Amino acid sequence: MLKKKILIGTGNEGKFKEFKFYIEYFKIFKHFKILDLSSQDIRGEPNENGDTFESNASSKSSFYFKKTKIPTLSDDSGFIIKNSIDFPGVKTARFTIEQGGIKKAVNHIYKKYGLECNAIPATFFCSLNYLDKDNEISANGMVEGKIIKNKRGHNGFGFDPFFVPKGHKKTFAEMEKIEKLILSHRYFAFLDFKKKISQILLDNLL
Length: 206
Fold this sequence. Notes:
- This protein is an alpha/beta fold.
- It is built from seven helices and six strands.
- The protein has a six-stranded mixed beta sheet with strand order 2-1-3-4-5-6.
């Protein structure tokens, strides 16, 4: 019997591993074969010019589903500095590339918002989008915390070494893997996603 398939719409290896963890943790798509983008012959890139994390996540799923006809789960994530106007927000990845990397992006943030601070309040957001031929589900998660000036820890990826979640002293990169995974914005997005799956999807997909 052929397994059903689900495509994870990210080229980020660290994010792909987290998706697989959450799919198992929340017991969703239990009998599916999980595919990464390298398993498919996909040309081009999705349009990520939306004004919200939700719209960008939807664009990614739509792009990959149209290319492959395989049910697709994608996300868009980033952070917003408190008291800014959605900065860097949906442009987090683009901003980081333009600055020349994560450390330079953090330095820029401190020059702009935190010249006299040791930590800058920020909120990380994640929007998930699932798309197949009959259904589209969006889900969201967030975690408050602070961006610190100097890198701490060697685990995780992205801004993990610079982000300390509210109520904790360690950065995500200093935490044990499981500790970080159940505190992150992506965890809360998957929690929301689990809640939003309709009975039809539970009957037919899980």
